[in-house]
Amino acid sequence: GDFTFSRGTDTATRVNSSGLIEKERANYALYSEDFSQWITFGAATITTGVNDPNGGTTAATISNIPSGNIADGLRLQNNPMSIPAGNVVCTSLYMKGTGTINISLERGISGTYFFYTKTFTLTSSWQRFDFFNAIPAAANGFQIYVSNATGTTATSVDVAFAQVEFGTAPTEYIATNGSSAIVGITDNLPRLDYS
Description:
Layout (H helix, E strand, L loop, with lengths): L12 E3 L5 E3 L15 E3 L3 E6 L8 E5 L9 E11 L4 E10 L2 E8 L7 E7 L5 E8 L4 E9 L9 E10 L25 E2 L2
Parallel strand pairs: 1-13
Antiparallel strand pairs: 1-2, 3-6, 4-5, 5-12, 6-11, 7-10, 7-12, 8-9, 8-11
């Protein structure tokens, strides 16, 4: 039956069919559907309330991005969490538009600096774009950027459903939209067991 659950930590575990404890997955990108909480930089502007891939209105349009200028775009700033060295982090975002654009993952807050970026070709339909990176040294937070860079061509892009998770491939999207009171976890995932 239904039950009420509340947790004050940023992890969830379950017992699998072999009796082993395994960690549940999580989306560490806070405000994954609330782009009003993200920050525009440079000349870029944002319009929220745009139709998303699931028929809702949680997407946003980033406009006025000068072509080929990495100084203009949108970012989720300084999401605090522990990222141990050697972990592989998968960053994914739904996007649509015309031309090419970058998604970047950068160390935020403190720790050894890293900056990973990948260029994607947009289409007129929603697509999930993802890339993964091994973290070289421990860090205490990250930022996600959607911006142009040398050679990219998009001046406007629709974005939806941001996700950052540990692993080499994206898993099913988990919405966040909450405050940072419970850092990096969403939907109060309960401690479940196989039985």
